[in-house]
Structures are given as C-alpha cells and as structure tokens.
What does this fold into?
Amino acid sequence: MPALRAACPANFFLLRQRTTWSSSLICAWLIRAIAAALAPYTGRFQPVLILDASKTHITSWVFEQSCRSGIWLVLVPARLTWLLQPLDTHAFQRLKA
It folds into this structure.
C-alpha cells in the first residue's frame, strides 16, 4: 500500500478496508475530502452532494460532517434513480453489465 500510495497523484485517494468499502465513516471522510477540494470555490458557490438513500448515507455522522463541511446533502428517494440519473440507468448500464 505505501508503494501504491506513493505512485498516486496528489489528488488521488487510495483506500483499503478489511470490511465493506461503503460505511458511514468512509462516507463522512469522503465529504471532508470533497470539502477540502472545493474550499477555493465555496466563497462563490454552494456545494451540493446528491446521494441515494443508502443506510450508510443517512446516518447522523454523515449529516454532521456535511454540516461542518458546508456541503448541502440531497437524498434521492429509493426507486427514483431512473428519473434523476438517466446516465446511470441507461448510458452506463452496458458498462456495468
């Protein structure tokens, strides 16, 4: 892992976990990383992060980190991905298969 991380560009993050990659702690960490990357623009723009309603996205820890980071969260209700993310459900469907 140290060699892989050293080979990555500065704006690239490499994560490795023993358990599932999707957790509220990882989600909160990603929100902080996004906030740090967007910091130069927050004086002119309001960051908005659109997430599906996964259990890992709707924890108090994730909401707290987004509030602290100044990022507004928008949750996409279940079964509306087809309407709100047509590229995900139509254009990328073949790539996912």
